[in-house]
Amino acid sequence: MSELTIWTLDWVPKGPRGFVRDLRLRWACEEAGLAYTVKTVPFDDRATNHLDRQAFGQVPYLDDGAVKMFESGAALLYLAGKSEMLMPSDPVEAAETLQWTIAALNSIEMVSVPWWFLDMTGNENKYLTGWLHQRLDHLERIFGERQWLVGGRFTLADLIMADVLRIPAVRSFGERPATEAYVVRMTARPAFKKAHADQMALFEAGDAKRAG
Amino acid sequence: MSELTIWTLDWVPKGPRGFVRDLRLRWACEEAGLAYTVKTVPFDDRATNHLDRQAFGQVPYLDDGAVKMFESGAALLYLAGKSEMLMPSDPVEAAETLQWTIAALNSIEMVSVPWWFLDMTGNENKYLTGWLHQRLDHLERIFGERQWLVGGRFTLADLIMADVLRIPAVRSFGERPATEAYVVRMTARPAFKKAHADQMALFEAGDAKRAG
């Protein structure tokens, strides 16, 4: 059996630490009990030093023997195919897990990431702000009704949705107590904490190497 | 065998006609030879009249017997599970198809849709504009090297990528001849033309009903 390899950067500045998307893949492997190693490409020249593996010059990407893929959302769905824990085998619940996974990527991040990007650069835009409020208000209604997105238990849908919602700027954007409780609950999971600590440790080791 | 039902609106204004996302699902069914019917919810009060089926008040959504799901990207991946034509059975090609499908939704649309939204409302923002140029330039390099995204033939990856790139504002955003040739090639497919014509006919019938 080939071992899973998650590729990320060898170092990033303090700001994005704990939020680089290799964390999603680490978290999924930890939840599912899948063995994996983490390898790195250099932060310097990152825009072009791995275009043969990631078409947009980003991280993470994943190796599993002959399978080599990028896009964290795609790699998560691929990993979920190895684990009933992440992706229910019941066809109705599987479809709902897929639905909410794509909702996190294409209905929430499609608004929250550009909003966050403009917010960070001091370019807040009222149209994006209104759109983000609307989307998050719909989620608040959902989280007011249930603890988990699908099937009364943790699935990949919760992993990706919580990872999208835990971005500090998004998390503090309005008062949404049910959503906040959901994020707290998901990020209290041991698998999340392990993935987070391991990413932080990798980038701290990178500090030492760059200083040395 | 249950019949697939694609749900959309009964009418939209002229602007979005030909671009409402039920078209993606129609296109996929036409390519794969999957039988389907189209049903509608009213355009009026659309923000709240089907929240029990689509959490954000949007269309499309899909029924397949007990399976009921929304998010066009998720519904496409679900439909692709029924068709080797859309999703290769080879594991390496399947992973690449998944990768490029998510790339369309989470690396391209995440930039192009908010950019388009701000552009339409006269709020062009130089940060989003620069980001979109960067992403589309990477794709231009890819399309300069190959005719199809995966495995030397049409897959779901091409369907969704072409649907994302054919938005007029995105299509006319800079000179990218390989990308333009790709969009022309994909939208010349009989399955796309059928899906497009059927959507246009539905909304034209809606005109008559609203006038009546």
Offer a concise description of the structure.
Two copies of one chain form a homodimer. The first copy, chain A, has helices at residues 22-32, 72-80, 91-120, 126-145, 156-165, 168-171, 177-187, 190-211; strands spanning 4-9, 36-41, 61-64, 67-70.
CATH architecture assignment name of the largest domain in chain A: 3-Layer(aba) Sandwich
Can you summarize the main beta sheet of chain A? 4 strands, mixed
Number of helices of chain A: 8
User: Which pair of chains has the greatest number of interface residues, and how are they split between the two chains?
Assistant: A-B, 49 and 49 residues
Number of strands of chain A: 4
Order of helices and strands of chain A, N to C?
EHEEEHHHHHHH
Protein architecture, described:
The structure is a homodimer. Chain A has about 210 residues and is of the alpha+beta class. Chain A is built from 8 helices and 4 strands. The first copy, chain A, has helices spanning about 20-30, 70-80, 90-120, 125-145, 155-165, 170, 175-185, 190-210, and strands spanning about 5-10, 35-40, 60-65, 65-70. Chain A has a 4-stranded mixed β-sheet, with helices on one face. Chain A is globular and about 50 Å long. The N and C termini of chain A lie far apart (about 35 Å). The interface between A and B is large, with 49 and 49 residues.
